[in-house]
Amino acid sequence: MDMSPSADLTTKALSRWMEAEGPETDTVISSRVRLARNIEGMPFPHLMTAEQAAQVIGMVGKAFRSAEASKADLSGCELVRMSELSPLDRAVLVEKHLISPDLAREAEKGAMVVGVGEAVSVMVNEEDHLRIQCLFPGLQLGEALTLANRVDDLLESKLEYAFGERCGYLTACPTNVGTGLRASVMVHLPALVINNQAGRVLSTVVKLGFLVRGLYGEGTEAAGNIFQVSNQVTLGQSEAETAENLRNVVEQVIGQEKHLRQSLLSEMRDQVEDKAGRAYGTLLWSHVISSQEAMQLLSDVRLGVELGLLKGVERRVLNELLVAMRPGFLQKLAGQELDARERDIKRADLLRSKLGN
Fold first, then answer.
1. Pick from 261, 280, 302: which residue ends a domain?
2. What is the dihedral of CA 139, 327, 34, 204, to 10 degrees?
3. Is the pLDDT of residue 8 over 80?
4. Would you say residue 2 lies in a domain?
5. Is the distance from CB of 24 to CB of 172 less than 8 angstroms?
6. Which residues constitute the domain of residue 278?
7. Same-domain pairing of 254 and 284
8. Percent of the chain with pLDDT over 70
């Protein structure tokens, strides 16, 4: 099962799961469920020796080669050791949300299992022995949880998890103890931002016990009006309850976003149409463009598309560009390292090509 990654994994920006449509895709880009698990009797990854790390990787690989994996439609998954990837390839996997920056940095002990059109990715020896992650387009937390549980059941049938009757699943970080579940939804909220309502709405979400972060999670800004909303509590609730509570909160947020979008359409149609058109024109004709500027312009274009004011631009292409114009992927596309200005030039070339088509 150990092998070099398939070509699509590090050369194709758009994962196959992103090509599908899903509920609420006019406001919700993706839903993610992640389960943290550890193996009984093994030190947490930051305390493991190289030999112990290799043992965990071998145990995970064996589980995905088993007959049970085939029965669960998971036999097509591939295991890739981080040490076999270049730093650039690891950066691309971070940009595709398939691995974390921590796993990319700790390459010697880490690995990943990926499959089901990249909707499934299991990080091995990150902060915990296992981080089972499932990604779906639109608002599909229940579907993502179902798939994650399928992977979890497979691994639990082959591995003995560290579990306490009182605390639930034991994890390296106390904030994950309990279900080990971190669910998140990536939302595009331009109307809330334009109307200066994003701060008010999202601060209310935080007061309800949820986290709000940027495009790439903790410590990142909400570039392009894209936010991640995730649960904070993992103890005292079932996995299904956590996912349902998050879904209810997200539905409230996107309900307000849609209401404000309709207000923009009825009261400021010309201005919004002009803003989207100018953004599209700038992206089509720029020859040097920064990531920050491109993200904002793509947000304006996406809003125009979702309101029916800008024709001929596919949502799939906009999703692809969220990854394709990132520094790692641009350098992978160029086949060489690029400095900041060279990346800005390459980014503009890519935007003209993708949007021009």
1. 261
2. -60
3. no
4. no
5. no
6. 269-356
7. no
8. 96
Hey, what are 52's tokens? 């112990």
**Is the same domain home to 320 and 253?**
no
Q: Which two tokens stand for residue 145?
A: 């949880």
Q: Which is nearest to 84 in space by CA: 151, 159, 9, 152?
A: 9
The alpha helices in the chain, defined as continuous H runs, are 7-11, 50-64, 67-71, 87-95, 101-105, 141-158, 190-194, 198-207, 239-267, 269-285, 291-306, 315-324, 327-334, 340-356
Q: Kindly state whether residues 190 and 43 are assigned to the same domain.
A: yes
Virtual torsion, Cα 329, 307, 304, 296, nearest 10 deg? -60
Band (pLDDT 50/70/90 cuts) for residue 7 is low
Overall size of the chain counted in residues: 357
Residue 1 has pLDDT above 60, yes or no: no
Residue pointed to by tokens 């305390």 = 47
Question: What is the total count of domains within the chain?
Answer: 2
Same domain, 212 and 312: no
Within a 10 A sphere around the Cβ of 174, how many other Cβ atoms? 11
Instruction: Assess contact for 254 and 247: CB atoms under 8 A.
Output: no
